[in-house]
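thread: overnight batch results

M.L. [08:02]
morning all. the overnight job finished for the chain we discussed friday. pasting input first so we're all looking at the same thing
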Amino acid sequence: MKPESNTLRLAPFQAVIFDMDGTILDTESVFRTIVFEVCTELGFEMTDAVHMAMVGGSHENTNRLLVESYGVTFPYALFDERCRVIMRERSHGGVPVKRGARELIGELRERGIPTAVATSSRNPHAQHHLGAAGLLDLFETVVTRDDVVNPKPHPEPYLTAARRLGVDPLHCLALEDSHSGVRAAHAAGMQTVMVPDLVHPNDDIRALGIAVMESLDHVRLAAFDKR
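M.L. [08:03]
and the structure it wrote out:
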């Protein structure tokens, strides 16, 4: 399914809450490669279907998914550690940023619109990657897996970010690339836009009434009516 027309205009908003991996950081494709490599190293065969189900999920959900897929002998703790070590090694030279991210964040700052990150990643990962991308100091707050009891698709990460910003969730714009993230933001009552990365919207996601846009450049155009 193609993203909606670039002529779509967003409703007014008072704050913007971003997902991190796959939305502002171009890290999902890098992580995909690592996941396949580590599984092979551990004697398991990663598949596209299993990987796609991992995208946007918390480490608990990923643990459950991998054990369900490969059995109780799957060494999740070792898998998780190896993936994190390799990801950190490969990000030493910096972390790539998604198209339009810097421009959108910069315009929001110029307009005095507060921003936050709501991610399923744990705090060390989020701090490191946002810092390596030169974006960490541009957000008022970063909500990670360590800050909530219930990860996405529960709305708690988005509700926590809105509370920290002091903005009613109904007046927040949420930007996501994963199904679990879209469900979380929608459940929080936010105007939700999906900007697909590796995962594309299915009928269930589209039924939520969200907008789907090609890139953060398109979000910026839609938000500020730059025709």
